[in-house]
Amino acid sequence: MENINIGSKLAELRNSLSLTQGEVATALGISNKTLSKYENGISEPSLTMLIKIAEYYGVSTDYILGINKTKDIKSIDLLKQELSELDFEGTILKTYRTNFELLRTKIQQPLKSPADKKTVIPKVNELDNSPFCRSIIETNEEFEMHLNTDDLSMYVQLLGNRSNFAWLGKDDVQENLSHLFKFFSKADAFKIIKLIHTKTTSANISASFVSENTGISEQKAVEILDEACNIGLCAKNVAHLKNKDVTVYVATGSGKILSLLSIAYSYMRGGSLNDYALCTQNCKLIDGGKNELR
Question: What superfamily does domain 3-107 belong to in CATH?
Answer without folding.
Answer: lambda repressor-like DNA-binding domains (1.10.260.40)
